[in-house]
Amino acid sequence: MCNSDLNYRNLLNALISEKRTLSKILKGQEKYDELLKEINKYDIDAYAPWPKQKDLLKTLGLKRKELIDLMREVYDKFCSSISSDGNYPIQKTEILICASNWQEDFWVLSPEKLEFLPSVGDWFMIPFFRNNLSGGGHFKVKEITHEIENQKHIITIITDDDIST
Questions:
Q1: Do residues 111 and 122 lie in contact, with contact meaning Cβ atoms separated by under 8 Å?
Q2: In this structure, what are the phi and psi dihedrals at residue 58, rounded to the nearest 5 degrees?
Q3: Given this model, what pLDDT does residue 133 score?
Q4: Which of 21-25, 34-38, 103-107, 135-139 has the highest mean pLDDT?
């Protein structure tokens, strides 16, 4: 997405999400220190409110256009730097398996590891369900999504709506 399409909230979300990488990329560049200091106070996964634009303007002593320009500049530097070796290490991989059955019971499982990553259309078995659902526990992969955010790779495996026996 072109950064000129990003508004304050979009930019703030991106910068807070990637604050660790931004700190690494922009280390020693004083121009960005105050903004990064403020961004580092917030966590993308926390329920605490993010800073309002007027509060950030006051804290940084900037005008609205100056703040947006600075945030866009930081975002551009992030986008152009992540492809360099070592600038965006994936530190954690999380696997989520979303499964349901004909009774509309729904489970989200997060195994520590998978022996292999199934493809769309593949069948796989989860022993826990085989042992606890009268021989069931076979799942057909309907969809797989990948999200990379905050140096974490999230793989979500969505299964067909029923558990086969």
A1: no
A2: -65, -45
A3: 53
A4: 34-38
Q: What tokens does 42 get? A: 């917030």
Residue type, 105: D
**Distance between CA 42 and CA 65 in Å, rounded?**
22
Partner residues linked to 130 by β-bridges: none
Amino acid occupying residue 54: K
Residues sharing a CB contact under 8 Å with residue 25, sequence separation 6 or more, in sequence order: 77, 78, 81, 82, 87
Residue where the block lists tokens 């910068």? 15
Radius of gyration over every alpha carbon of the chain, rounded to an integer in angstroms: 21
CA dihedral (18, 147, 1, 55) in degrees, to 10, reads -40
Give the bridge partners for 144, in sequence order: 157
pTM score of the predicted model: 0.64
Domain ranges of the chain: 3-81, 92-159
